[in-house]
Amino acid sequence: MAHVIDFKEAGFDSVLDELEWRGLISQSTDRDQLAEALNGEPITYYCGFDPTAASLHIGNLVQLINMRHLQMAGHHPIALVGGATGLIGDPRQSGERTLNPKDVVAGWAERLKNQIGGILETEGDNPVRFVSNYDWTAQMSVIDFLRDVGKNFRLGTMLAKDTVARRLNSEDGISFTEFSYQVLQGNDFLHLYDEYGCTLEIGGSDQWGNLTSGMDLIRKVRGTSVNVFTSPIITDASGKKFGKSEGNAVWLDGTMLSPYKFYQFWFNRPDVEMESLLKAFTFLPKAEIERLVEESKTNPGAREAQRTLAWEVTSFVHGEAATQAAIDASAALFGRGGDLGTIDEDTLEAAIDGLKVEGENGEKAFAAVAAGDRVVEAGVKAGLFKSISEARRAVKSGGVYLNNNRVEDEEQTLGEADFLHGRFALIRRGKKALGAAERH
């Protein structure tokens, strides 16, 4: 992949200028030096992803988007999946990580590699190169590690790192294992510099100390200046972090968060977030983003910006077919077009997951029904009506639908053909109130 982007035509001076406009750079080494590196001949850069979970999340997606921008500008990407550092985990702001079994980490590493490969170019003349730091770290003895790598790190500098300092002052403290993480990551950058001529590392802003440790190590042992930059931690309008550490993970793996729910997450973002999210998470041209932001201000009810954002991000991560299926499912659920019978079972189940009702044991599940049950009874069980009599009145007024077909008879029962995929019956009250029942 050659330099295929005309940044002047796109309204930017360079890829660095575009990344800054999109709000994708939080901290960096000397800007002039970084600009010179990115504006010259293609360089090799890398970003690390530790398999501390079975999937990446949208915090990691920011790094992948940065990698894609640089790849599109002709620079050569390396995706490091931390087979070694994933066994340790970088220090969190609070609390020690739970160490996962080696076979679990190896399995997660393979899953992350597949996810990354679905987002970055893996073919052509500028494909992403995958590496695992386990390949060079596992070969080092403790003595070699301490003599060849650890000797170059100063304790005072390590203790001053923000996360380390915070953990040292906490009640739990920090273990030597997690304290050593920055040395391992620094050694990764040195190895990739020696092996592939890698001169740029990128990561999240919470990784700044780890990134600069590698930069300092290369300068000390190779006498060469390299660059690093970080992207900001993405937050919502209230300042709350999007990410798994906050308990509201937006996973990239479709088996952990369905494409339907992923699409809905982006579609439901408020107008105030549109500018920052469109800039950071899409590759839309500057002029189009500015038009969408203006449209969200003058005609917010149309939600064109949200619709575009949801399409762009979901199709980027899950592909256009899965994204269209999510859109079709949403339309069909509320009778706005489309056939419920054409929605695949996984998408349908994901789309109605929020319609589960709380049972006697406190756990949520779909209302349990059987063939032969009356629709009005199923509607009560699904939480649409408080009583059978209320459900009957709604049927009389023509406001009850079974799988988008109006219920005309108060005594209508559920037949074999009424269960979508042999499992689900969807009951709607009016235009917006939806309930779901599952055959038992």
Automatic annotation (TrEMBL):
Keywords: Aminoacyl-tRNA synthetase, ATP-binding, Cytoplasm, Ligase, Nucleotide-binding, Protein biosynthesis, RNA-binding
Sequence motif 'HIGH' region, residues: 51-60
GO molecular function, one term: tyrosine-tRNA ligase activity
Motif 'KMSKS' region: where in chain: 241-245
Coiled-coil features, chain-numbered ranges: none
Record keyword Protein biosynthesis present: yes
EC number: 6.1.1.1
Alphabetized CDD domains for the sequence: S4, TyrRS_core
Entries under Pfam families matching the protein: SYY_C-terminal (PF22421), tRNA-synt_1b (PF00579)
Subunit-level organization: Homodimer.
Function according to Swiss-Prot or TrEMBL: Catalyzes the attachment of tyrosine to tRNA(Tyr) in a two-step reaction: tyrosine is first activated by ATP to form Tyr-AMP and then transferred to the acceptor end of tRNA(Tyr).
Protein name, entry field: Tyrosine--tRNA ligase
Source organism (scientific name): Bifidobacterium amazonense
Gene: tyrS
